[in-house]
Structures are given as C-alpha cells and as structure tokens.
Design the sequence.
C-alpha cells in the first residue's frame, strides 16, 4: 500500500467517529455498574450482585477465545465480527430496561437470570473489544489509536454524566413500621428517573456508536488514514520499513536520507521493547487487571455501600469519570518508560490496599461520618484514575511493537481479569469473609 499524499493530514471527522467507536466498547458494561446502587436494592443477590455481574463478564471471555480459534481455522474479516457484536449490544441494551428486575428460581433460590444473560451479551462486546476493536484500529495512524483509547475511557464518562443527572435519591433509612414482624422497614428515596429510562438513553447512544463504526469501515476516504502497513487476514498487520509518522514526504531527496535513518533508529531505540520488558509488561498488565477488573469491582459494594447509597453512587460515578481522566492525562503526558510505569503501579497499590481493607470490615472505619465518606470516595476515584493511566501507557508501548502485540496485551488483560473474578466470586459467595452490613443494625440496637 503506497503512502498517500494526504497521509499526514489528520481527519477530525474520523476522530469523532473513532471516539464513538471507542465509547461502544465498554459503554453497556459501565452503564450496568453505574446502576448498581439501585440494582442491589431490587436484586435477590443484594450486595453479592456485583460479584455475579463480574463473573458473568469474565465468562464472556469465551468471545475472544472463539474469535481467535475461528481466525486460526478460517480467517474472516474482523469488520464482520465487530458488526455482529454491536448488533448483540443494540438488542441487549433495548431489553435491559424491561427485564432488569425480573427474577427466576434457579439453583435453589431466586436469581437475576434475565439481567445476567443480558449482561453476558454486553460483556461479549467489551471483552472481545480488547482483541478485536483495538487491533482493528492498529491499521490506522497512531493518533487514531489514542483517540480510540480516549473514546474507550469516555465509555465510562458519558454514562456517568447521565447517572449524575439521575441521582440515587438518598441513603436507605430504617423507619418504624407496624406492618412488619421486626417492627421496622427500609425506605430509600427514589432517583430522578428510573433504570428503564436510563437504559433507553444508553441504547440510543449505542446505536449511534454502531453507525459510526459502519462509516469508519465502509467509507473509502478514511482508508487514506491507514498507516503504511500490510493488512493480512483478521487483525494481523505488519508495519513497512518505510512507514513514516513524522510527516516526511516519500519524495524526499537523497540528501535527507541520512537524517531520516538516524531519526528512525532513534525512534526504534525508544519505542522497541526488549524481550524482558515485553514479557514483564504483559505480566504487569495481567496483575493490574486481576485486581482492577476482577477483585475490586466485585468487592466495591462491601467497601462503599456501608457508607450509604450517596457515597456508593459518588464512588462509582467519579471512578467512571476518573477512567477517561487517566486516559486524557496519558494523552498529554505519555509514559512509555518501564521504570516509571512500575513506580506508578506501586503508588496506586496504596489506594487499592485501603479499599480492600474497608471491604473486609463490616462496618468499615468512620462509616457514619462525613469524613469517612469523603475518604472512601477519593480513594476509589484515585485508584481507578491512576490505574487507567498505567494501562493506557502499557497499551501505547505495545502498539509500537507491530505484529500481533496488541492482541497479546489485550489477551493478558482478559486473562488477569478472568482469574481475578473467579477468586473474588468464590471468596464472596462461598466464605464468610465479606459480610453484608445492615443499615438497621443501629435501629435495632436502640
């Protein structure tokens, strides 16, 4: 594929469409988590609902596995897979608002079967995006991969803004009642609009994202923004030796060849990872996702809910906003230095340790104090934002490696997340380590 004369002319229309495409990756899953403060009030699983959702999401990793198997046996255009997945997302988002509170008797008790089936469809889109959507963007100039990753971060910000408008109503209160045997009942003020309206809006947005991808894939004008790559079957691509991302025209005279080679060598010395660092960053990514996508989402309810629905609502919303904030920070202050990535990972672990400690205590420290609520919300927000920054930095480093590096790092993300979710689900549902805190405990004591 020859270098087009418009190769370095950035198309902002494509930026907008790519960001919408990025939003679609985790929009539906993030929207589900943002409704958890309301869902746990209705679901038969109560606080353990988050662990069920997380394990369901990780079971959906069968999607990336099947995709890779199919591509190995009989390679198919990745755009076909993407269109199929986004169709599943559209259908699921429409049905969510009607069946989220439907329970069925299964495995000995009432369970949110319909909700979990729909979430599984959402997760197929999100999980497979790491090995399908992101590698698909690898054929474009690097700036568009960053735009996609920012859009992926916005998949948390956009529904968060909607959740802010929705509100949570207020904290659950314990009120005296003559109609119950216990002598008290639970009362939770309603939000400004319910879950059904929330997901109706989200489904409309996802349809727009689907249309955006079709434009990206079908319009010939956007193919001019491809990097100088050989695109093979599926998501495999190889950068050509004369790929030039610095705006040097292919018709440069020989007098500039020496400086071009020097610049290229310099770039490669910075961007190319050693074999040790390549493996190390893959392991680090797996460990990070073990906690951030597996353990902590499952235990967040136990960590924050004892502080009240309002604190829980703000912790989830601000954490979702912190995710794209970390992406924007990485956009303006990128870090591909392995040592700096390691230092940031260790620093972020401090907030993770505090969050884990609070989830293990029932009730946690200062649960009835405003300061305690502020601390826990800030802790979860910083933890999410910093880890988002680290993950994007690692992804940006792997983009420069070419080949199937983005597929490898995406697979590490999913493996770490899957193992973490299994560990969390097992501990939460089959041990007494994590305990439900009854807001009426003090009422009964009095």
Sequence:
């Amino acid at each position: 594929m020859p270098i087009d004369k418009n190769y370095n002319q950035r198309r902002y229309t494509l930026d907008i469409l790519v960001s919408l495409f990025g939003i679609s990756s985790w929009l539906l899953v993030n929207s589900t988590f943002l409704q958890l403060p309301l869902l746990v009030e209705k679901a038969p699983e109560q606080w353990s609902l988050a662990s069920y959702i997380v394990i369901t999401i990780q079971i959906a990793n069968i999607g990336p596995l099947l995709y890779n198997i199919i591509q190995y046996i009989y390679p198919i255009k990745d755009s076909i897979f993407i269109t199929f997945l986004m169709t599943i997302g559209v259908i699921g988002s429409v049905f969510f608002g009607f069946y989220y509170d439907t329970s069925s008797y299964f495995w000995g008790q009432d369970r949110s079967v319909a909700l979990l089936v729909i979430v599984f469809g959402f997760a197929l889109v999100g999980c497979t995006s790491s090995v399908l959507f992101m590698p698909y963007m690898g054929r474009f100039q690097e700036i568009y991969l960053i735009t996609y990753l920012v859009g992926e971060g916005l998949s948390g910000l956009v529904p968060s803004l909607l959740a802010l408008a929705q509100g949570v109503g207020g904290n659950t209160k314990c009120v005296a009642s003559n109609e119950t045997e216990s002598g008290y009942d639970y009362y939770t003020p309603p939000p400004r609009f319910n879950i059904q309206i929330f997901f109706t809006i989200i489904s409309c947005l996802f349809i727009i994202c689907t249309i955006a991808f079709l434009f990206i894939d079908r319009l010939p004008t956007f193919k001019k923004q491809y990097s100088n790559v050989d695109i093979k079957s599926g998501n495999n691509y190889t950068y050509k030796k004369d790929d030039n991302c610095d705006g040097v025209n292919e018709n440069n005279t020989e007098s500039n060849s020496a400086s071009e080679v020097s610049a290229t060598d310099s770039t490669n010395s910075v961007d190319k990872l050693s074999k040790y660092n390549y493996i190390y960053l893959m392991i680090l990514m797996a460990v990070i996702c073990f906690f951030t996508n597996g353990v902590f989402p499952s235990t967040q309810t136990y960590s924050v809910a004892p502080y009240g629905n309002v604190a829980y609502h703000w912790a989830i919303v601000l954490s979702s906003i912190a995710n794209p904030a970390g992406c924007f920070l990485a956009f303006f202050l990128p870090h591909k230095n392995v040592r700096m990535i390691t230092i940031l990972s260790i620093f972020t672990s401090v907030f993770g340790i505090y969050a884990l400690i609070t989830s293990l205590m029932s009730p946690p420290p200062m649960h009835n104090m405003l300061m305690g609520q502020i601390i826990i919300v800030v802790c979860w927000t910083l933890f999410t934002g910093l880890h988002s920054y680290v993950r994007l930095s690692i992804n940006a480093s792997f983009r420069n490696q070419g080949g199937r590096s983005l597929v490898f790092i995406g697979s590490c993300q999913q493996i770490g997340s899957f193992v973490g979710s299994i560990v969390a689900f097992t501990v939460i549902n089959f041990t007494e380590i994590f305990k439900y805190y009854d807001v009426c405990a003090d009422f009964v004591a009095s």
